[in-house]
Amino acid sequence: MQVISRKALVEACSENKYRAAASEVDAWEKVASKTDWGSLEDVRRTYADADGVTIGNRVYTIFNICRNQFRLVVQINYQFKMIFFKRLMTHAEYDREEWKKSLRKEQERQGVL
Q: For the chain, is the Cβ count within 10 Å smaller at the N or the C terminus?
């Protein structure tokens, strides 16, 4: 699988509040880039606690990072073997659900909704 954009992922990890997640996110990226996931079930064979969340017309995959301290949100295109980095956030930020509104707006701008 190809992780898009690795640069944005690295930049997110460099922010002060996310630095503690950097090494685990890096390990996740190394594993994800070597996989051949075909479905969420395949993802769960590698990351049992991965979860799919539907927002608008898309399903986003959520990974728990650093024992639930952080959440990594990606969109996976299984057909084209691409993983699109969307968000890295603290558990508290995830619980506020502002990220869902942000992703919905992104879809509206792209004309997906």
A: C
